[in-house]
Amino acid sequence: MAKIKYIEHNGKEHVVEVKSGMSVMEGAVKALVPGIDADCGGACACATCHVYVDAAWLTKLEPMQEMEKTMLDFAEGVEGNSRLSCQIKVSDTLDGFTVRMPKSQH
Amino acid sequence: MTRWENAMGDSVVIVGAGQAASQLAASLRGESYQGNITIVGDEPYIPYQRPPLSKAFLAGELARERLFIKPEEFYTEAKCTLRLNTVAMAIDRARKTLKLSDGSELTYSKLVLATGARVRKLPLPGADLPGCFYLRGIADVERLQEFFKPDKRLTIIGAGYIGLEVAAVAVKRGVKVSVIEALPRVMARAASPAISAFYEDEHRRSGVDLRCYVRTESIAQSGGALAVNTSSGIVPADFVLIGIGIVPNVELATAAGLDEDNGIVVDQFAQTSDPSISAIGDCTNHPCAYAPTGRIRLESVQNAIDQAKHAALSMCGKAKAYNEVPWFWSDQYDLKLQIAGLGAPEDQIVLRGQPASRSFAAFRLRDGVIAAVEAVNAAPEYMMGRRLIAARARVAPERLADKAIPMKEIVQ
After folding, report:
1. B225-246 pLDDT tens trace
2. Facing B66 at nearest CB: one of A26, A40, A47
3. How close B344 comes to chain A (CA, Å)?
4. Which residue, A74, B18, B88, B395, is most buried by CB atoms nearer than 10 A?
């Protein structure tokens, strides 16, 4: 279990308790946090769950797999701290993890 | 909590409780639609994702509650009434009412048919014997899983997405798998010959007994097991999975006199031949600029989601023509197949990368324009391909085939 902070593009914050083993994407969808579409449901097939990760956390995450890296490479508005939230698995160590959502997922 | 004021007495009734229905409810509230929303579904479940059924859910890697597209609270908060375990029986277009299996009636100002599709039944002797399965819903998978034990013999009829995804999950579990395909190659409807050949090799290397161009003739009981009679002999099996496609659920629409042609006929705004009735998702035959004939019926999450979004816009007075690039994916073993666009038999096919590297793509060119891309573990080709298809880009075949030119620089 970890408390994850989701910040919408307009600045609105949502703090959600997410079960370990779920993805950061699922945590948002289950808590009705807007701004993450996740059209493919977490199969790393659509790049509509794009988030920006707080710099302090970037190094604490498992490194990106090749598929996520290349999907992101072609998504809109990608920055150095971009991730696909369906590929970030929640664990206790992620308590306090913060992501920001882009303006649009399409 | 948001309050929905329904001063006009508006009411949207959605028939079907799948991906399209869920998206429509979300998009309507996203567009501040104020009326009542009711979803009528014949399964006992709130809307869930079907793609994982033949993948992670079948493999036991995804719990059932993770299939649900949105949590139950979403429907409560959105004031969307769920009528589950309920079948829509008949539409009365003159009175604008929908009759339900429990005898009650719903009145609509707008009716949306998101009825989806059902499995195509194998019209052969023995196809209904105990031990023969189809795969479309949660209940189908839960029945199938009981047979997923090491050394059980599974014969799969049909080498499309469902058949091959199940084959991949089953061999990993130690099940002995045979796949029988009537056409000369696997995924013949969805992919180019080079992609088919690659997947045939992968399945055989993983231990699947794959037989293409073989006709299934009947299924019989044999001792305590089953025998699948084919044009290449008898294939013994402990259980059989039939995956030979789906047929759209159009009967509710046709009984009400709506136009039908391999799907409920709709326009670019998801409108049927009755202005008070829309249709979205797998059940629709819709205009599509990417289809060789200009119209198509798609079986995909992308279409369900995007058509639902466009239907919502239209119902909220913001009509925008639906014209998205179709996309699909399939997970088999550690391979991700991502397809964008639609192929036609006369396409010129250009390969990029070596299949032996297990990361390559097939581009389809039609009159020099990129019409589709089929990418195996090749996200740059897929993602850039999608954009190029939407832009109707022309790229010389020799450039596309040249891996030394990065996808981002492929257009001159």
Report:
1. 999 999 999 999 999 999 999 9
2. A26
3. 23
4. B18
